Amino acid sequence: MKKLMSLLAAFILCAGLAQAANYRLSEVHAEGYPTALADREFARLVEERTNGRIKIEVYTGGTLYGEETGAIEALQVGDLAFTRVSASPVASYVPNINAVQMPYLYKSGEHMWDALNGPIGQGLLADIEKSGSGLVGLCYYDAGSRCFYTTKPVNKVADMRGLKIRMQNNAMMVRMVSLLGGTGVTGIGPNEVYSAIQTGTVDGAENNWPTYQNMGDYEVAKYYILDHHTRVPEILLMSKVVKDEMSAEDFAIIQQCAKDTQEFEIKAWADKEKSSEEIVRKAGTQVIELTPEAFAEFQKAMEPLYDEFGKDFMETIQAIQKVGEKY
Ligand code: BDP
């Protein structure tokens, strides 16, 4: 009996010691956007599976960090626990991540998911922590494909000449625009693109249908050019400092919750991609279908990026291409 009592006491003590914690998650998109919905689902699952011990407060609309690089740097020093970002700026800290977003890499969304959810993509996700970046990759989300949008019609590569295009904070993406004859401009958060176009700071940007629509950019840059240059997945990141402070059991719960939100986001993404395209088309936006020749021209112009930026992880790129052979 005495033994039982002390066991019980030890159990109560342990349970009491299991850390309660409140964390913050930063998101640039507004409430209701697929990634914002997934962030909330992630927070809900974590709270549920830790019996309310771990709470994650989700800050949407870029209210905490309007620039994803700001959020990433806050994770590195442990000022922020989680952020959902695009893979694009992550490559500035973990260059191998560019392997998942090379131009014209995938034949389709299916091809991308096959690669990301297989050993290559999961290996790259693990590399984020292994690289010593201070970041931990939890899961990927869908973000469709990205196209340029401008204030002037673009029907061929030559029409990009001289255009200033807002790009994500990633040297490869900036170089992409110079290969097309324009200038890539960084340092503009996604929520600031609208006014940057309106004031003429830039002549356009590039993004998927949902961001183009949700941020309202289609109202100021009325040409959406279907060049589909990249598929850039989203990544849910965690701070390594925060990970190291928690028990392995709690981290395992967090990692599983993140993985369990992927399908949820992919579904929300599919719906939003469709409705955003509808809204944009109805608004009278000029959606430019490139001729096969012009499309090939865009593809050719971006080819040097493979040598210039992909050299150190060419095997990974080739492995991703190989996954696509069956599609
Ligand atoms: C959107 C991504 C978001 C990026 C944004 C951008 O969902 O994470 O911040 O593009 O272009 O598609 O900065």
Q: Over the alpha carbons, how many angstroms does the gyration radius reach?
A: 21 Å
Main sheet characteristics: 5 strands, mixed
Poorly predicted runs of 5 or more residues:
none
Give every kind of bound small molecule, once each.
beta-D-glucopyranuronic acid
The proportion of residues in beta strands is 15-25%
Distance between the termini: 66 Å
Question: How would you spell out the order of helices and strands?
Answer: HEHEHEHHHEEEHEHEHEEHHHEHHH
| Structural class by secondary-structure content | alpha/beta
What is the spatial order of strands in the main beta sheet?
Answer: 2-1-3-10-4
Plain-language structure description:
- With 327 residues, the protein is of the alpha/beta class.
- It contains 15 helices and eleven strands.
- It has helices spanning 2-17, 34-49, 68-76, 87-90, 109-117, 119-130, 171-179, 193-198, 209-214, 240-245, 248-260, 262-282, 292-302, 304-310, 314-323, and strands at residues 21-27, 54-59, 82-86, 135-141, 146-150, 164-166, 183-185, 204-207, 223-230, 234-239, 286-288.
- It binds beta-D-glucopyranuronic acid.
- Beta-D-glucopyranuronic acid is lined by residues 28, 35, 68, 85-86, 143, 168, 190, 207-208, 211, 234.
- Residues 28, 35, 68, 85-86, 143, 168, 190, 207-208, 211, 234 line the site of beta-D-glucopyranuronic acid.
